[in-house]
Amino acid sequence: MTGHIATTKLLTELRRELGASRVWSEAADLEPYQRDAWPLAAKWQAAQLDEHRPAAVVRVTSVEDVRKTLQVAASHGRPVIAVANRSSVTGAAIPPRGAVVLDVLGLDRILAFSGLDATVTVEAGVCGGHLEEWLNHRGSTLGHYPQSLHTSSVGGWVSTRSSGTFSTKYGGIENLIAGLQVVLADGSVLDFSPTPRRSMGPELMQLFCGSEGTLGIITQVTLRVARTPLHRRFVAWSLPDLPAAFTALRTGFDQHVVPAMIRLYDSTEAQGIYRMVELSEVRPLLLLGHEGHPAMVQAEAEVFGSLLRDVGGTELGSDIGNAWNRSRFDAAWLREGNAGDARMADAIELSVPWSAALALYRSIRAAIEPRVESVMAHWSHFYSDGCALYLIFTLFDEDNESLQRVYADVWDSVMDLATSHRAALSHHHGVGLVRSPMLSGAVGYVDDMARRVKGSLDPSGMLNPGKLTPT
Ligand SMILES: Cc1cc2nc3c(=O)[nH]c(=O)nc-3n(C[C@H](O)[C@H](O)[C@H](O)COP(=O)(O)OP(=O)(O)OC[C@H]3O[C@@H](n4cnc5c(N)ncnc54)[C@H](O)[C@@H]3O)c2cc1C
After folding, report:
1. Ligand 1 center–CA 427 separation, angstroms
2. Side-chain-facing half-sphere of 34: CA atoms under 13 Å
3. Is 253 exposed, middle or buried (0-12, 13-18, 19+ CB in 10 A)?
4. Tens of pLDDT along 140-165?
5. 331: helix, strand or coil
6. pLDDT mean across residues, the chain
7. Which tens digit of pLDDT belongs to each residue from 268-315?
8. Handedness of CA 102, 103, 106, 108 (dihedral sign)
9. Chain CA centroid to CA 91, Å
10. Is the pLDDT of residue 102 over 60?
11. CA of 41: how far to CAs of 37, 74, 209, 273, 425, in Å?
């Protein structure tokens, strides 16, 4: 059967099972699904883009729709990729040519909420920003604030092991998942009912957290919520240098004084934030978010303040934090840095132990500075055993091929340096197309187990092939 006839048959069957209005195959309808928010995909030439042209997009609105889509795609030997808001910055949501794209944005209902149990159950395509506003009206919050809050879905968060800016208090999305419903490649439906915790064997539900659509289609999620804190206060500090900041932060952890939000900016990135309040300061910037009972906020800010003064810090008040808060969902650097054919901007985030955090940052700067237009960094999430380094670089090259080549070189260098400094290749953006070729041998990744799990849950390899486990 020729490709064209095979696709016509696939489309006919999908339309029969799901209804014509929910199966799209016109070039104009498919085109937006050939990219996600991965900056490299925006620079692809026509031939590269063609490699990612799906055969159809199916907008599902029920578990039954998901099952039917999987069944039809399997009978035609087509890969299936679940996509939601396509805010992935790694190419995780980009299909291989000829795939069936299973668009979950029609799974958009908020199903149940309990203030007493502090949980909310939603369908996977619910937009994060919508859910947060819905909860706020009921006096609650998720506490999960990725910068893409308003342009990403709950299912997308779970699939990528997302993390938000207040993670030192609320944790990553993996800490917020209480229950999950997943449809496997063979159409069977798994229900992990919500419980506060359990000791009944390994927590298999977590297999799907970070699975990037390669192990099953997430249809429902129960998340833990919290009451909206009574008080929140931002305090900014300028520090003499990065080692001083790290010393104070480490002492904070040692003394169990850990603000809900901690963001440490190197001098380069700090400049842009100081400019928001027209402050002419050049030193590294530490932004803290204290929240909870007003008395605890006061106490935490005082104790942390004394740790920072001990290392030469200067308090800059609340204006900087408030300005940051107002613009925290706007990634201007990504938009502006990718404007035009010759410009590229991207972020690489890594997870690194305290002992290697500064050395990793310095070696990356030294390695890529000669090849990039600019580089800046902050540390955006902190743990008792380490932190997340978030590196932003920009490139300028009018030759498209050479732009893409330098981009790949920078990624390779950073990934190599991450591994030699015992860092995980990603803290929260995930793997997608950009990191999949580098996973083997990465710190904390067990190739053999990943292959066995994939082989068991998706033996034909139909779910999002080319991502995570090498096929
Ligand atoms: C400006 C900007 C800022 C960002 N900031 C953050 C941040 O602060 N923190 C953070 O963690 N991330 C951030 N991201 C990355 C991105 O928003 C997250 O990865 C997000 O979780 C993706 O959600 P999505 O709904 O857009 O999923 P998509 O991009 O559509 O999909 C992402 C992956 O999940 C899979 N998937 C999606 N839905 C399902 C489902 N229902 N079942 C199975 N698989 C599914 C897809 O196959 C794909 O592999 C940012 C992105 C941008 C563009």
Report:
1. 13
2. 23
3. middle
4. 999 999 999 999 999 999 999 999 99
5. coil
6. 97
7. 999 999 999 999 999 999 999 999 999 999 999 999 999 999 999 999
8. positive
9. 12
10. yes
11. 8, 27, 25, 29, 20
Question: How many Å apart are CA 105 and CA 59, to the nearest integer?
Answer: 7
Q: How far apart are CA 227 and CA 169, in angstroms?
A: 13
How far, in Å, from the CA of 36 to the mean position of ligand 1? Answer: 9
b/e code 339-364 from CB counts within 10 Å (16+ = b): eeeebbbbbbbbbbbbebbbebbebb
Kindly give the pairing relationship between strand 23-24 and strand 226-227: unpaired
Q: How far apart are CA 85 and CA 82, in angstroms?
A: 10
Determine the average pLDDT of the residues in 67-84. Answer: 98
How far apart (Å, rounded) are the C-alpha atoms in residues 446 and 331? 33
Ligand 1 atom 45 nearest Cα: 213
Strands 56-59 and 23-24: antiparallel
Joined together, the tokens standing for residue 410 give: 């920078």
> Residue 281: helix, strand or coil by DSSP?
coil
3-state secondary structure of 223: strand
Amino acid (one-letter) located at 401: E
Are 193 and 229 in contact, with CB atoms under 8 Å apart? no
Taking 80 as the threshold, does the pLDDT of residue 1 lie above it?
A: no
Is the distance from CB of 344 to CB of 394 less than 8 angstroms?
yes
pLDDT band at 3 (very low <50, low <70, confident <90, very high): confident
Q: What angle do CA 409, 374, 432 make, to 5 degrees?
A: 45
CA–CA distance, 41 with 340 (Å, rounded to integer):
13
Find all residues with CB under 8 Å of 100, minimum gap 6, and list them: 10, 14, 54, 55, 56, 57, 58, 69, 72, 73, 78, 79, 80, 81
Ligand 1 pocket by Cβ (under 6 Å) = 36-37, 81-89, 92-93, 104, 124, 146-148, 152-153, 155-157, 159-160, 162-163, 212-213, 217-218, 331, 334, 428-430, 464
The closest alpha carbon to 182, from 445, 460, 428, 457, belongs to 457
Residue nearest to atom 38 of ligand 1 (CA): 156
Whole-number pLDDT of residue 469:
83
| pLDDT range class, residue 471, cuts 50, 70, 90 | low
Over the Cα atoms of the chain, what is R_g? Answer: 23
Amino acid at position 306, single letter: S
| 414 exposure class (CB count in 10 Å sphere: 0-12, 13-18, 19+) | buried
> What token pair was written down for 317?
């008040």
CB 183 within 8 A of CB 457: no
Decide: 180 and 205 in contact? Cβ < 8 Å.
yes
Three-class SS state of 382: strand
